[in-house]
Amino acid sequence: MNGAEALIDTLYKAGVRVCFANPGTSEMQLVAAIDKHPDMRGVLGLFEGVVTGAADGYGRMADAPAATLLHLGPGFGNGAANLHNARRGHSPIVNIVGDHATYHREFDAPLTSDVEGAARPFSNWVKTSASADALAVDGAEAVAEAMRYPGAVATLIAPANFAWEDAKGAAEPAPRRAVPQADETIVAKAAAALKTGEPSALFLGGMALREDALNEAGRIAEATGARILCETFATRLQRGEGRVPVERLPYFGEMAADYLNGLKKIIFIGAKPPVAFFAYPGKPGWLSPEDAETIELADARIDALSTLRTLADTLGAPKTHSKAQQKFTPPPMSGKLDPAGVAAALAELCPDDAVIVDEAATAGLAMFPMTGGMARHDWLMLTGGSIGFGLPAGVGAAIACPDRKVICLQADGSAMYTVQALWTMAREKLDVTTVIFNNASYAILNIELARVGASNPGPKALSLLDLSNPMIDWVELSHGMGVPAVRAKTAEEFRAALKEALEIKGPRLVEADLRG
Amino acid sequence: MNGAEALIDTLYKAGVRVCFANPGTSEMQLVAAIDKHPDMRGVLGLFEGVVTGAADGYGRMADAPAATLLHLGPGFGNGAANLHNARRGHSPIVNIVGDHATYHREFDAPLTSDVEGAARPFSNWVKTSASADALAVDGAEAVAEAMRYPGAVATLIAPANFAWEDAKGAAEPAPRRAVPQADETIVAKAAAALKTGEPSALFLGGMALREDALNEAGRIAEATGARILCETFATRLQRGEGRVPVERLPYFGEMAADYLNGLKKIIFIGAKPPVAFFAYPGKPGWLSPEDAETIELADARIDALSTLRTLADTLGAPKTHSKAQQKFTPPPMSGKLDPAGVAAALAELCPDDAVIVDEAATAGLAMFPMTGGMARHDWLMLTGGSIGFGLPAGVGAAIACPDRKVICLQADGSAMYTVQALWTMAREKLDVTTVIFNNASYAILNIELARVGASNPGPKALSLLDLSNPMIDWVELSHGMGVPAVRAKTAEEFRAALKEALEIKGPRLVEADLRG
């Protein structure tokens, strides 16, 4: 057994079932080891951003890490943006990055770079293995670090010679890291704040947005009248019919500050106090009202479910609550397609337990409010703000949940960053329906240009935010990568196309042409 | 005038004419400043790898830096792979990376990351500006550092508030860095070695591969009988009819070692002694013969032209030489298309002064030897080994040289990494002919798998190196991004398609279907 085989065997024993791969020469032994392992699945992405984004989507839905296989420093770089999103979302991932054989580094061959340096800004944990035997031991540690509640990005750098040298064999899984619990005195403080009867809110993120935790939040709301809010960009929000509904904080800072205005007590569980996504001249960065008491009860790494349950019990909240979302379907739309038409069709047609991957940007503003009462689902968001997340995350979610429909709500500009994900959907026959919101623009940036104070933009500025010259033909792009596709220009056409896509099992793309 | 305007004005005054941009909110002031500047050109790329690769292609052909506009740490990450190639090729680039306003960093907003940390492994010079006034001064330094002979990757990080705050105005260009000259004693040593009459070679790279430097090499060859060799992956080789021909070192280490076998004296100018691209079990890393004297006369940062001229004069070489390449056109091919058929058509049809961007990988092995006698041209190669270079570099070369035909020889697997470059070719109506070598495979990796000792690969390993399921339809992909395209399955079809593409002025893609 060589080091690569010992590593892959170790990863499998520790619970890793899939390796999303974009390998090169320095990872060939690892490819051979995946090949040799009877149960480890290998999934090819045609670009590293697809690989890391897929691992993020997988991690969010499986609550267990996939592995990635990346090619030296530049390969890591290509995957960094989606690792940034994963790190911000506390999604579990184990990156395996090949590097030159240790004795080859002195030659400074063309692909030589500082792999650890490249990995560190985008990883929670980084290690370079020091021997063939160390690969397996470090692999077990990497999985344990990736599983650190609720998840983390662990990067293991594997010099090529250790992959092909003899090794003793697989390592035992490393002990699971303990999950920190909330401080009892802060629980008591939060309970006291909620008991004042002043306008209050639970502000939730991370694992506090899963169904079981939301039920505890519902108990608290029942007992105290607190509102239940969440981060603008949450890792995975479980919502829809029968679940406790959550208000989502608006994206733009001043709208978010307005939204929070009037609250006197805000309790944070699984989330930090919200701040503006960017600074703007003369606009606030801190969004909570200045006269509100903000209590950081549990950050994302503290057990959210037990924190909420303890808080509910401390408050003497009833065991049941009346907060469950009722079914609600907006009326069907007709005529020229706009985002509301997309949302109405989705709310009507979405099957039970779908996974919604939301990178719809400005076009998606209508999606969230109009779909709160549709069939129960998981809603995945752009946690790190680094675009190119949606299609790859859809790949990963579909592999984690083969029996659930995945629906990618995808802005056109963002889709182009990692458009190669469509090919993996076709190859793996993934049950993903992709809706492309084609407004032929980085629409958000036209807003942002004005917000930073750059008024009266000329044609050069506008052209840098515009995708209409030439128009991207999403149907042809999708066909070119093997995913059947159709274009819809009216609400009726869109509804029919979405219905068909949701009824078949397999990849399909619907271009929502929003240009009127 | 704000900091962004002062910076853009400074870059222009220092010689920067183009900014390849993929901006986000933190770069909106810079977009507005480009807009306001009467002469700075902005070119949009739909992915940062396109932006940085275009800057690399531009820098190689213009011998002056373009600027890039990148969005925080993840945006830099997306561009890192092509910056790695540029850094390895000593190509001049000035990256401008937006970051959060300085006072916003404490909030740790979702897009916050260690931008300097992300940039350092892929840059020769990194600086974060400390004030609005510093932006212009640092911009002038960044250009001077990027112009450090023969070129370097300089990364300037621009906090958003300094871009919108008032600034004094543009800074004067910084003094050009001195170009180091070769050590006289080593010149004398090289001359003495060449005079021994033993089998010898000039091993050239970087600026030693430009026409004027090669003429000096021709004089030396005339006087001493030395062979003229070059790196496997050179930044920019000027060759073709009337120029001094150069032998290119083979890619695979053992073939390269065989190729150098028998040489007793090797003089390195603009290049380091060659090493294997990767380590392989039991194969050599150092490629020069053990009994050869290797003289490192000038590394890539030492003046190549003056070094070669001084060496030629020291040897008393004649002012002229007889080494100029004669015109040679291989016979036309017919029937099933293979790489030789592509090469024959290219050699016949290539117009004068074309720029060839070579990322053809295994399919390109036939290209170089069969095209040595075609019309004079520049040949750009994958200096850092990080794939996804070709199409973006074609964009940049076409913008640097609007009156020259650019021909991208592009492997299919590599093309997918930065396929968004086709859209920029269409938008800017660039005179680029792209030839996609469609073998539906990472063909090189099938070879590498065996070379690292992984024999008898199974279906899982092979599937991770295969692009045939589904087949990528390059004609549809290209149409989807606005570039007219055609597929050729025979040598005759390919010749006709290439002829038409070279005759029009504008972007065109020809898919060379090599699957037989």
Low-pLDDT parts of chain A are none
Fill in the CATH topology of the largest domain in chain A: Rossmann fold
**CATH architecture group name of the largest domain in chain A:** 3-Layer(aba) Sandwich
CATH class of the largest domain in chain A: Alpha Beta
Overall geometry of chain A comes to: globular
Structural class of chain A: alpha/beta
Number of helical segments of chain A?
20
Q: Main β-sheet of chain A: number of strands, strand sense, barrel status?
A: 7 strands, mixed
Itemize the secondary structure elements and their pairings:
The structure is a homodimer of 516-residue chains.
Chain A: H1 3-13, E1 18-21, H2 28-36, E2 41-44, H3 48-62, E3 66-71, H4 72-88, E4 93-99, H5 115-119, E5 125-128, H6 132-146, E6 153-159, H7 160-164, H8 184-195, E7 200-204, H9 211-224, E8 227-230, E9 237-239, E10 247-248, H10 253-260, E11 265-269, E12 293-298, H11 304-314, H12 339-349, E13 354-359, H13 367-370, E14 377-380, H14 390-400, E15 406-411, H15 412-415, H16 421-427, E16 432-438, H17 443-451, H18 459-463, H19 474-480, E17 485-488, H20 491-503, E18 508-513
Helix pairs in contact in A: 1-2, 1-6, 3-4, 3-14, 8-11, 9-11, 12-20
